[in-house]
Amino acid sequence: MSSQHAFASETQRETTGKGRQLVAMKELDKVYGNGTVALSDVNMTINEGEFICFLGPSGCGKSTIFKLIAGLEERTRGDIEILGMSPKEARKQSDIAFVFQDHTLLPWCSVIDNVMLPLKLRGVPKQERLQEAERVLALVGLSDHRKSLPRHLSGGMKMRVSIARALASRPKLLLMDEPFGALDEITRQSLQDELLKIWQQDPSMTVLFVTHNTFEAVYLSTQIVAMTARPGRVSAVLNVDEPFPRDDSFRTSAAFSQWVRTVSEHMQH
Ligand SMILES: Nc1ncnc2c1ncn2[C@@H]1O[C@H](COP(=O)(O)OP(=O)(O)OP(=O)(O)O)[C@@H](O)[C@H]1O
C-alpha cells in the first residue's frame, strides 16, 4: 500500500461494500441556527456491511453527520436517504441505533431492565423482550450481571450494556459517537475486539464510528472517512483492505504501522 493510491479522490468516492447501498448523502450542507456552517457539500455513499470510522479535527462536523443520518437534525441543503427512506422514517422502523461515549444508562434500573427499555417503549411483549435482552447480554459477555445496577459496573462493562441495548433493536445501522473515548487502553482494545466479533457475526449490519484515535480507526475499519476542519467536508475515503478477523497480530504488524502513518500524514494536510 502506498499513500499515493490509498485514498480515493473526492469525485471517486464509491464504497467497496459487501452489500447494497444503505446511506446516500448528496451535496449536503448543515448551517445551524446561529450561523455556524458545520458541513459543506458532503457527498458520500455507504454500503451495507461496512465498518466506517470518521476521523477529523474537533468541531469538523462528525457528530452533525450522525445527527443528520439519525434524523435528529434537519439538513440545510442537499439530500440524504437511508435505504431509500428519509432518516426519520428509517429511525421509526428501528433501523438505526446509537451508542454514545456517555453510556446513558438509567441508574435505578438493572442491566437487563436497561437493555429491555427501548423494546418496552416500542411495545414488544415481555417474553420477547427478555429473550432478546438475554441474547444481546450474552453477545457482550454480561449474562452473569443481568441483575446488577449500573453503579456496580466498571466503565467498560457500562459500555458493554450500552452496546447491548443498541443491538437489542437489531439495527441495520449502528452509529457510535466516540464510544470508547473515556476508557483505558486495555479495556478499549478488548471492546474493539468484541465489537468486531459482533459486527462480523451479522454481515448486513453497518457500523459508523467516530473516533479521534488513528490506531482505533485503522484497527476497526473497512473504510476511513477523513474530514477537513470546519466547515466539514469529506476530504478522502480510505479503503483499509486488510482481512478480517483482526487481532493482536494485526495491531503489531508492519502493515498496521504503515496504515497508521498513511492516515496520520493525511490528517496533517
Ligand atoms: N446545535 C448547535 N448549534 C450551533 N452550533 C452547533 C450545534 N451543534 C454543533 N454545532 C457546531 O457545529 C460544528 C460541528 O460540530 P460537531 O459536534 O458536529 O463536530 P465534531 O466533529 O463531532 O466535534 P468533536 O470531535 O469535538 O466532537 C462545531 O463548530 C459546533 O460548535
From TrEMBL:
SMART domains per UniProt: AAA
Gene Ontology molecular function: ATP binding; ATP hydrolysis activity
Bias (Polar residues): 1-10
ABC transporter domain boundaries: 23-256
Matches recorded under InterPro entries: AAA+_ATPase, ABC_transporter-like_ATP-bd, ABC_transporter-like_CS, ABC_transporter_ATP-bind, P-loop_NTPase
Keyword annotations: ATP-binding, Nucleotide-binding, Transport
Disordered: region residues: 1-20
Residue spans crossing the bilayer: none
Name of the molecule in the record: NitT/TauT family transport system ATP-binding protein
Source organism of this protein record: Paenibacillus phyllosphaerae
